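Hi V.,

You were right to ask for the full record rather than a summary. Here it is.
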Amino acid sequence: MTEHILAAERFEADRAHLRAVAYRMLGSLSEAEDAVQEAWLRASRADVGDVGNVTGWLTTVVGRICLNMLRSRRTRREETLHVQVTDPALRPRDGGDPEEEALLADSVGVALLVVLDTLAPAERLAFVLHDMFAVPFDAIGPLIERTPATTRQLASRARRRVKGAAPAATPDLTRQRAVVDAFLAATRGGDFDALVSLLHPDVVLTADRFVVPTPEPVVVSGSHTVAKGAMAATGRALFTGPALLDGGVGLAMAPQGRLRLVLAFTVTEDGITEIDVIADRERLDGIEVAVLDA
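Predicted structure:
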């Protein structure tokens, strides 16, 4: 019987792949590590003698674990959605490395993680396993108790959410993307002069009362004042990435894959003229977030 037990070395060969699957399912590095560890505990007790594709089998094991975690998350609807963006909850759980989490979010795409977080658990599983890891629908269906055809429909629906509605027909969408990317790079790098160069001299930034927080919205103006404020937000910038926000290019901040804040920009030939910083959950829920084309 022991010859049919999965060896630890064989599991370790797939650990990086399994972590990648779990991270895209859960959006949190610490939760992904928990899911992979649970997968090992289950796999180490299973008889794999009849398993032809061990990697595929382990992928479905992790998928099922993540599905249960997502369902549990939705039933309690995450208290973290209601904390302020300045809270320590921005940091990964269990003392995780925020830089590692930020790098991983960048590699996957913050906007993608945000959209995935809006999907129902079954939709997320179908999309992630099929579209991102090429698991066939007939292998995914049993995990969510759906037929392959219904599973295909779930993945298709999720795919439409990821892509979003067609962006507004504007010739400067590419320029918007370049300016927003440059803004994020300058903020992360602490390059004050580069930030000022992107801003119109009379730029106006409005932050709703949930951003700071304050009793009333905060309004500041002037390129130097706005740039100084951005310099104070370099920590937030680690978990921020470009996204389509209602068809325009903006930035979404999503520590652990959950949307906390967006920056909507007005970009003209003279630079960034307006920045709207939104953390109000009701307003965030009304914004269509989609993934920008590469």
